[in-house]
Amino acid sequence: KDSINEMIRNLRETTKRNTEQDWLKTNLARFTRLIQGQRDLLAVSKLILSELAPLAAIQHGVFYINDSPDSDPDLRLLASYAFNSRKHHNSRIRSGETLVGQAAFEKERIVLTEVPGDYIQVASALGTAAPVNVIVLPVLFENQVKAVIELASVSQFTALQTMFLEQLTATIGIVLNSIEATMQTEGL
Fold it and tell me: What does pTM read for this prediction?
């Protein structure tokens, strides 16, 4: 009887893993199709945030583009999702400033859990709530910071969502690099 229960448990775990891998591959492929060939930085950044929201249960998002890819990152707010600007909010962030600048400096993601209630409010017409999770993701191409994306959710990011976001940033880096190269070519 124990061996049957063990087999059932193993089968469930294998099925769950396979389902998660299918979700991951399907959504990465869908995003790649969506953003490949885009030629406008603002359009692609807005598209990324709006498509990410329902997929990864995100209620807030900001997309900072690096205006200085050859030296210390100089990040400019390019697009946002359901975000109200506040008086202490920066539309420009330098390397090492705030968590966005720190993620750019370290070239590593930063995750906040148990976010304080006064950190930021997710607002709708019906009310407000503090997010549970905030994730800050540097977007790299050949180890150069192209952008930084900060996302907030009123629910905990799952390991699968986090893995998806990490893998997606590589695709976004390739697309941003391609847009930059096209813009430079057209500028010549």
Answer: 0.88
